[in-house]
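One example given next:
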Amino acid sequence: MDKHISRIAGLFIIAIACLVLIGWQFDISLLKTGFRGITATMKVNTAVCFLLAGMALILIPLIVSPRDQSTRPHDQLYKIFSGTIVVIGLLTLSEHFFGWNLKIDQLFVRDIVSSATPYPGRMGVNTALNFVLMGIALLRLGRNSQGGIWLAHSCSSVAAAISLLSLIGYLFEVDIVTRLTVLTTAQAIHTSLTFLILYVGILAIRPKEGLMKVVTSSLVGGTMARKLLPWFLISPVALNLFTFQGRKLGWYDVQSEYIVEITLAVLTYSILIWVTARYLNQTDLRRKKAELALKTINETLEFLVAERTKALRTSEEQFRYAFEDAAIGIAIVGLNGQFIKVNPASCQIVGYSSEELVTL
């Protein structure tokens, strides 16, 4: 995972926000709802917050260290963008919980009351809560601290879970989970998708820290997580959606739906576990082969070193025997002309002992 992913995610979020704002400006229903047949709209304030979040997502990877934040404008801009997101989210939550009307919901464009929008122009509780969490995450990501990164990943994970709940609500036609609470604005489907894109961008900024440290690890645990995580994210939704649509089409009744769902789940997860176990076995086998090859290389090197040492010792002994038993006088002289070592024949010729010759 690379930091370029966060920039791409930021640009994608900015593009979605701009399209929604254009939809509100020129009353283009498809841009406001995201999909045909959907009544819930992405509010103007929501699009503005996404616009700010996208820009913050692009700016944060440019920050080198906290000590430089006072010298470069973009290091302060991301704080302004992220802080504004938190403020708008908190103000909207206060409107929902205390019944206030702060006149921020239709500040730019007027909205109408509908079943999906009981409060004109106001984002839902789940959307406002998500912006508070995502804004905090963006603020903390700009600081090089492990605690801040863990907090950012935790807050953004909660927000992603709320949006995933809303998205699944649309897939299974359950209205209440798109709102989080009753009597509030539903979260539009493209709002949920944009939050998930923002979540991916946040995780990509610090890919080797926080929650991502385990996933991006080169160890067996990280490898297993990368192999299994995509399937465990997709397969439950796909299996349940398949059985749900099958019941709607009249292929089986409600009781049979559970049987089909359980059977497919057991088969799917069994296959996933088997494939993962096979992959881990192959990885372990390659590791053992590498260890065996390394052991063989080490043993070969040890043998060669031992043989070389043995050969050197043999050469030294042969030299010593030849030096001592030579019939002619042999002397080893240093650079200063002093004797270093003399053989017995030399001592007999000059009439001095070897100790006396060496000390001369």
About this structure: The first strand starts at residue 331 and ends at 333. Strands lie at 331-333, 339-342. The chain has a mean pLDDT of 83.
